[in-house]
Amino acid sequence: MLDLDKLFTNYTIPEFNENLVTWFNREKRDLPWRHNKNPYRVWVSEVMLQQTRVDTVIPYFNRFMERFPTMESLAEAEPEDVVKYWEGLGYYSRVRNLHQAVREVVAVYDGIVPEEKERFEKLKGVGPYTTGAVLSIAYNQPEPAVDGNVMRVMSRQFGIYDDIALPKTRKLFERVVRRLMDPSHASDFNEGVMELGATVCTPKNPMCSLCPVQEHCYAYTHNVQEELPVKTKKGASRIEMYDALYCRRDGKTAYVKRPDAGLLAGMWQYPLTERGTGEQVNGTYVGQVKHVFSHIVWYLDLYVVETLPEGDWVWLDGEERAKLTVSVAQQKLEQMAGVDDETVRRNDDV
DNA sequence: AACCCGGGGGC
DNA sequence: GCCCCAGGGTT
């Protein structure tokens, strides 16, 4: 185990805190969830920000908070309505877990986000990072909130070469943060480190000349910014190929609902058949959609067909379709089908 | 510990 | 193309 006493030898902890917090309060970006820090808003923002960039989250956060301004309003809503406000944001289990957790807070904790760590961390979708982030930012509790930014900043600051892809490494950085953080400025410390990682101590080409904690930084001193943090590569994605069937009847289009568990759980799409396993598709080829997930690559060949194989598809008009939640892959197919419809209509006109 | 789970942006 | 992103759940 890494010896923290050795790590902090000749290291001035108060100076790090002073420089970081002063910098953060001068340079912090104007973000919607910083306008007021009620625990519910902080919580929603932290869930949306999981593996998702700030610029992507901002419009989703604003729409979500406008529609569900309080935990009570969210608790009362139907799951299908809530998921619709997450459409396109990805990792949809986040919103289902958040919805369930907020319902629990309203029912069990009288609508107050629990300040007790042992209670908050047990809520659905709340892991070690979100626990520390909400308790420190909303309640100023001295809890570590170790995300990718924190591991990058701290690995460089102290020259820690542990592989950040390993689960146990996060715990190491939690020990580092507990040792380093000034407990009376927990909120500014955690937000400050993350802000630093997002804007200055970036993965590529960090702007060390702008860094408030450059002086004692191991990576800067030894000029090894590019080799930290250490992270092992993940394996190659698997490739999946499907035929997507676009079938119209009486002004309606066939859709199926994906299974309630697994990839894109419960979301709606055109009927898909795995290529090569079924019979040859009897239809008109339109084109191919490529869609990249974090661990899978989809190639979807779109066909216009007159008849469908057996399945639980339903017929939807435009108004009905608009209420349902679909993946971005499905949006690409609809775009392609729509373009094809336009082509057909134009040719009919001629 | 390893794998699953979206989508987008930077280089 | 590859990497990363204010990660968590399941096995």
Automatic annotation (TrEMBL):
Pfam families in alphabetical order: HhH-GPD, NUDIX_4
CDD domains assigned to the protein according to its UniProt record, in alphabetical order: ENDO3c, NUDIX_DNA_Glycosylase_C-MutY
Signal sequence, renumbered to the chain:
none
Give the record's cofactor note, including how many are bound.
Binds 1 [4Fe-4S] cluster.
Ranges for domain HhH-GPD come to 48-199
What role does it play? Adenine glycosylase active on G-A mispairs.
User: What name is this protein filed under?
Assistant: Adenine DNA glycosylase
Gene name of this polypeptide: mutY
